[in-house]
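Forum: Protein Structure Q&A
Topic: Joint prediction for protein chains with partners

I've read a bunch of threads here and the consensus seems to be that you should model interacting components together rather than docking separate models afterwards. I'd like to see that in practice. Below is the full input, 723 residues plus whatever partners are listed. Could one of the regulars post the assembled result?
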Amino acid sequence: MTLYSLSNVSRHYGTGPTLVRAIDGIDLHIERGEFVVVAGSSGSGKTTLLQLLGGLDRPSEGSVEFEERDLAGLGDAELAQLRRRTLGFVFQQFNLIPTLTAAGNVEAALAPTGIDAEARRGRATELLERVGLGHRGEHLPSQLSGGEQQRVAIARALANEPAVVLADEPTGNLDSKTGAEVIELLRGLWENDGLSVVLVTHDPAIADARWRLVRMSDGRIEADPARAA
Amino acid sequence: MFYLSYVLAELRRRRGRTLLTALGLGVGVGLVVTVSALSSGLDRAQDKVLHPLTGVGTDMSVTRPLKNGGGAPDFGNQGLSRSERGRVRRENGPRRFGLRSLGKPGQHFEDDNFATATQLSFPETEAAKLAGLPGAKDAAAGLTVTAIHVSGTVPKNAQRVGPPVGGPPSGGPPNNIDLDSRTVTGVDSSKPTLAAVSASQISRGRYLRSGKAREAVLNSSYARRHDLGVGDTVTLKKEKFTVVGLAKSPLGGQASDIYVKLGQLQRISGREGRANVVYVRADDSGAVDALGKRIDDSFAGAQVTTTKDLADRVGGSLVDAKNLASKLGAALEIVALLAAFLIACLLTLSSVTKRTRELGTLKAIGWPQRLVVRQVAVESVFQGLLGGLVGAAIGIAGALAIDAVGPSLTASVAQAAQAVGPGGGGPGPGPFAAAFGQGQVTAGSTSISLDAPVHLGLLLLAIALALLGGLVAGSVGGLRVARLRPADALRHIE
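Posted by a regular:
Agreed with the consensus. Here's the joint model:
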């Protein structure tokens, strides 16, 4: 079943001589259960692509369909609901709320769903245990290592049982060992839970042979095994 | 509960900014509290000065002043009927004072006369007519006269002396004749709140009671000058009146020396059924102007004086401070509040800018826009609440400082214009002018210690204003958040 279907998608910034084509006429199809690694150098447009997939931005041209729904037809509130119920985000900078504990950060994703406080707290604890941080629930982000913070961010991304996790350079701020642990965590989610993962990275070496590696350059898809097939 | 924990955690984390915002709002509303307390203190001081000028704003007195026609008046320019002209001529016209008619040379004599100089009399029934006018709530008649008591020994070369009314006698009275004059007002004792002296002005003893007993209330300064007190007697035209009370006259209020019942004064002064002032109370302060005009139209020669007119005559540093507080104080309050609100808005905007990525993350993980906006707004309202408490504390401290310093203010009233004597040939401060005037407006000055009362309502107002400031700042911040696009927010570099 097709998860994403992008047709001739472009995203431009500025006008005239200052026009920047961050994404320039991309066609891309992602099936449910795929692990897609989007690799490219800095400025290749991979983060912009991820934001379009996450409904955080709208294309200048073309259409982005998620589960056969054109995201351009959704309003801000509907996009927020889609992100809350179906998508999970992991960022390079972790983007944890500094004033909330690890458990509080996971609860932040659950709070808008309206579940009661006890269930919310139980779910947060369960997710933290799942990423190996059950004992760190009451620690603030500033009291956690980079790897631990990224694990908390992954737990937050999983809070509402998303269909897909969108990870933007999740190892970019981590040392190689910790980065490998994070990749392993995502691999486990993909293998064991059947989650779809779209991972953006500048390092194609992290890609598993079973994963689909899409290479980007100058806003265009340079190589895509699916297209080649 | 989650949202509240998040709000409190944010306020704790940004403690410096929270305190700065609260302090900004606190100083603004604290200034409002202090200035309002000061204004309230000035009101209270003014009330003390004017007390018991009751009915300021709704009461008025109606008189028929003598118009200055030049030369000896025949009351032809007063707009009166022939019979009324005859009546006021008999009451106020020149009267010859013949010593020879009082006895043989060397014989002791006493003579009592009652004169009105500046206010012409009219039928007492005018009060009922004025009470029936639209906008009038009630009316009561009064009569103020000058009681002149002359005593002495008829000299051997007795000649006519006069006139005693309104102008100086040529050469003055002979040395062996004593002249004593007092202003006496007759009041309708059945309407003690609508009279020249009210029950609230009694400082010792009691007010006049209805009935036939001859009672008098003395102005306290007159009583002090003549060493009189409650239980003593005063004599008016050989009739003794028991002093039942002493009354203080308010600064700027009308004051006579002696107050007796209206009917008794009418009888002994030969003015049965006559009055020269009607005290009128309007339905409300908004009806005063229209009622005054109706009285002018229906009552020939009427002059309407409101108690506000009397209050307006009070001057001095108290009034200057009151004017300053009402004008500059209001401007100061507005500027302080606007500055406080502006500071709160700028700090909130700055805070939102610093938290752009955090707020963008909330949007990215699926927080609806209204929740993100609400989060920022509630944080700002909490800062407003804190600012309100700080402001209340600052306001109380300011008011306590004013109380501690206790600045002294003076209220003063200038002497009323001199009387115009019908026999004196025009205006001028003749030696009898003051003595023959009607109940005089009390002149002089008094000192009042200023305080700044802070009541609960004022503190609640301070907190409400600070909350409003927080709400405004929260709305501005919320608007900024609402316009934040998640993709841009996530790209923001902190």
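Chain B has 13 helices and 22 strands.
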